[in-house]
Amino acid sequence: MNIGFIGLGVMGRPMAEHLIDAGHTLHLNRVKETSQHLVDKGGKAAASARAVAHASDIVILMLPDTPDVEAVLFGEDGVASGLSQGKLVIDMSSISPVATKTFAKRIEALGCDYLDAPVSGGEVGAKAASLTIMVGGKEQVFERAKPLFEKMGKNITHVGGSGDGQTAKVANQIIVGLTIEAVAEALLFARKAGADPAKVRAALMGGFAASRILEVHGERMVKETFEPGFRIRLHRKDMTLAVDAARALDLSLPNTAATQQLMNAAIANGDGERDHSALIRTLELLAGGPR
Amino acid sequence: MNIGFIGLGVMGRPMAEHLIDAGHTLHLNRVKETSQHLVDKGGKAAASARAVAHASDIVILMLPDTPDVEAVLFGEDGVASGLSQGKLVIDMSSISPVATKTFAKRIEALGCDYLDAPVSGGEVGAKAASLTIMVGGKEQVFERAKPLFEKMGKNITHVGGSGDGQTAKVANQIIVGLTIEAVAEALLFARKAGADPAKVRAALMGGFAASRILEVHGERMVKETFEPGFRIRLHRKDMTLAVDAARALDLSLPNTAATQQLMNAAIANGDGERDHSALIRTLELLAGGPR
C-alpha cells in the first residue's frame, strides 16, 4: 500500500521503518540525513505534504504538537490540499483532544476519513514495535487501519469517537506524571525522615502503592539515574495539553496543575532533558537542596 | 506465650484472634460486646493497660492515632507502669514517625524493647492474615517478633530503625492517596472530554499508568461503587501525619498537602465514611456537580 509518513523524528523513524519492512511503499516529507536510511530502504522522498497526500492512500502524522499538525494538514501545500475522496489521515502525534475534533471534521468534510491514534511507550516501544496505541474515530475506519497499527504496536485500543484517542493519551500522561510526583514525595519523605528509600520502596511493592511507576521510576529515584526515558520537557507539553483542555471544559484538576508547575521549575533548574523521574530533584530543591 | 493486645477495633479483633488460634494466651484490655468472642476463645480480660503489660511478655498496640498510643503507653495505669526488663512493646497502629522515635526511647530506657510495625491491607487483610507489615526497630528484636507477625501478615519487611516502619506506612499512604487522586483527575477528565472512562481505563492498563489503584479504585470510580474499602476519614488522618511530619522536617510536599485539602472537602460534603476512591466526587463538585 502507498502510505505517507510525515514526521521523521525519534519516534517517527522507527515507526516508518516497520511499515517499510512490512512491504509498504512509504512517501516521506522533509527527508534529512537522520532519515536517509528510509529512502535507502525504498522510501520515496516527496517535495511537500501535499505531494505525500497525493501519492498515498493513508497518510500518517507523527509531529511534536498541535500547531505542527495544523500547519501540516491545513497550511500551504499541506496534506488537505493533496487529499481526494476515500483517503485516510491518521494522526499519531500527541496533541489537543479539542483541536483534534475540529481537524477530524475538516478532513471528513473532504470525503476522507480521520483517526487520532497517539501512542505511549517512547523510543524503546517505537523501535520494538510494542507501542500502546489509543485510537479515536469510527469503528470501520479503525478496522481499516488496524493492520498498520499492528506493525507498530501491541496494546491497541479503539477508545471511541474522534478525539477520544487523544483524550486517553492525556489521561495517561496525567496519571503517569502525578504518580511519578507521588512516588517522589513519598521517597523524599522517607529519606528526610531518616529511613532508607530503597527499603521503603521494597516494603511498598506488594501493597496498594504498587505501580509500574514505583517499580521503574521509583528505582531511578533511588539510584539517581535520570537518563531518559521520557524527558520532563516533553511531559510538560502533555501536562499543558491537560491544563488547556481542562480550562476549555471548566474542569478543575488541582494536582495536574501543581505538577505542571513543578515541571516548569524542573526545566528552570536545568532538568528539562532528564527523565521525568528527576522530578524528585525539584522537590529536593524545595527542601533546601540535594541531600 | 503471654501476649497483651490493646486496641480491639475492626483491625485489632481479627489480628488478636489469629494469635489466639496460634495457641497464645492473650491478655486484653477494655473487652466489650464486640470483642467478647475473644474471651470466649480463651483470652483473659485485664483491668488496665498496666495489668496487661504485667501479665505479658510482649504487648501489642493497635490504636487509632498518636495521642491514643501515648495515653495507653504513658498515661495513668499505662503499659509503661506495668513493664519489667526484657519485655517487648510492638505498636502496630499507624501513628507519627516523629513521636514514635520518642516513644521507643522511653520504653527502651525501661530496659525493654520496642518495635513500630504499622500495617496496610485493611479489614480484609486483617481477617485473611495477609497484612503488609512495615517494621522499624533493632534487627534482633524484629527476629523475636517475626513469628507473631507471620500469624497476622504475609508481606513483612524490616525497614530500618525505630520510626522507620511508621515512615514507610506514611510513604505508602502518600502514594496511595495521590495515585487515587491522579486516577480520579484522569477519569473525570476523560468523561468531561466526552470519552468513556471505562474504555480509557482499559486502554491505560497495559502501559506506564498501570497500578493496583487504577485496577481496583479506578474500577470503583467507573462503577461508582464507593462502599469501603478504606474510609476517606481514615486516609485524611494518614495525610495529616504526612503533612505534620513534613512540617517538622521543613519538607515541602505540595500534592500531599493539596490532596489532604481535597479530603477535607470530601468530608465536608458528607463523603468521610465512603471509600477513598470517592475522592472523584469531590472533583465532580469542583467541576459543577455530579455529571
From TrEMBL, chains A, B:
<dbReference type="InterPro" id="IPR015815">
    <property type="entry name" value="HIBADH-related"/>
</dbReference>
<dbReference type="InterPro" id="IPR029154">
    <property type="entry name" value="HIBADH-like_NADP-bd"/>
</dbReference>
<comment type="similarity">
    <text>Belongs to the HIBADH-related family.</text>
</comment>
<protein>
    <submittedName>
        <fullName>2-hydroxy-3-oxopropionate reductase</fullName>
        <ecNumber>1.1.1.60</ecNumber>
    </submittedName>
</protein>
<feature type="domain" description="3-hydroxyisobutyrate dehydrogenase-like NAD-binding">
    <location>
        <begin position="163"/>
        <end position="282"/>
    </location>
</feature>
<dbReference type="Pfam" id="PF14833">
    <property type="entry name" value="NAD_binding_11"/>
</dbReference>
<dbReference type="InterPro" id="IPR008927">
    <property type="entry name" value="6-PGluconate_DH-like_C_sf"/>
</dbReference>
<dbReference type="InterPro" id="IPR006398">
    <property type="entry name" value="Tartro_sem_red"/>
</dbReference>
<keyword id="KW-0520">NAD</keyword>
<dbReference type="InterPro" id="IPR006115">
    <property type="entry name" value="6PGDH_NADP-bd"/>
</dbReference>
<keyword id="KW-0560">Oxidoreductase</keyword>
<dbReference type="GO" id="GO:0008679">
    <property type="term" value="F:2-hydroxy-3-oxopropionate reductase activity"/>
</dbReference>
<dbReference type="InterPro" id="IPR002204">
    <property type="entry name" value="3-OH-isobutyrate_DH-rel_CS"/>
</dbReference>
<dbReference type="InterPro" id="IPR036291">
    <property type="entry name" value="NAD(P)-bd_dom_sf"/>
</dbReference>
<dbReference type="Pfam" id="PF03446">
    <property type="entry name" value="NAD_binding_2"/>
</dbReference>
<feature type="domain" description="6-phosphogluconate dehydrogenase NADP-binding">
    <location>
        <begin position="2"/>
        <end position="160"/>
    </location>
</feature>
<dbReference type="InterPro" id="IPR013328">
    <property type="entry name" value="6PGD_dom2"/>
</dbReference>
